[in-house]
Amino acid sequence: MHTIWKGAISFGLVNIPVKMYAATEEKDISMRYLHSKCGTPLSYVRKCPNCEVEVAWEEIQKGYEYEKGKFILIDKEELDQLKTDTSREIQILDFVRLSEIDPIYFQKTYYLGPGDTGVNAYSLLMQALNNSGKIGIAKVTMRSKTTLAAIRIIDNCIAMETIFFPDEIRPVHQVPNLPEKTEVSDKELQMAEMLIEQLTTPFDPAKYRDDYRERLLGLIESKMKGEEFKVAPDTPQTNVVDLMAALQASLEAVQPKLDPKAAADPGSGEDAKPAAAAKKTTKAKTAKTTRKKTARKAT
Asked: Which intervals hold domain Ku (predicted)?
């Protein structure tokens, strides 16, 4: 695994040397643009449309567009002067519970391995985090950008999750057409809850696959072998307008043995029970009554 950053974790007066590694990798299949006439890969040229000449890197300058077509020019030296934190340090500011952070804040995950020295301090922090059930909120500068980060444990390894600053999260009220009041049918709600229960399972990431990437790889391999590639037709989707009908069809699809009458009329109010539970209760009552009759006859 390639080291992408070296530094140290600090909290209080404790300093722990670490090496950073990418915890994830992109699996997108990279393809280049070719000239259709000759098959030659295309190259990109930095060209000024005003001067109509190719521009070298040393002639390129950064600028901020404050109005359409109007820029504030900024030199590299001016940007360098703004960098106040150039230390290679992951400074833990606070400790919080992971459950307090909404997943919307998380960006990218990195593994932090122990440096050439400080293995004992690394183990100490890892064990302390495990025992406390807390994670660290830290600040770190990477690639000239300061970001927040969460320091936590993943499978006996200290990991760092970069997270957004609060002002980088767009407020929910900007989403158009959000319902102001939630009004749903009791029967529709109960059927939806039944459907959720039927589809509930322990999380197993191995069961989820990138179907498009697998089909694209199949297409590439078939073309390399000179074979014809065929894609299975998609399952036709039924345009169900009635919400109750859609819920009923979904329940029948995930649980074929479910009593259709019970699924169609799951009951209403707080005393309503799912069909399976009601059926179980009825059987229990019937058995109890039969035992009582048998006992009286024996007497």
From this structure: 52-180
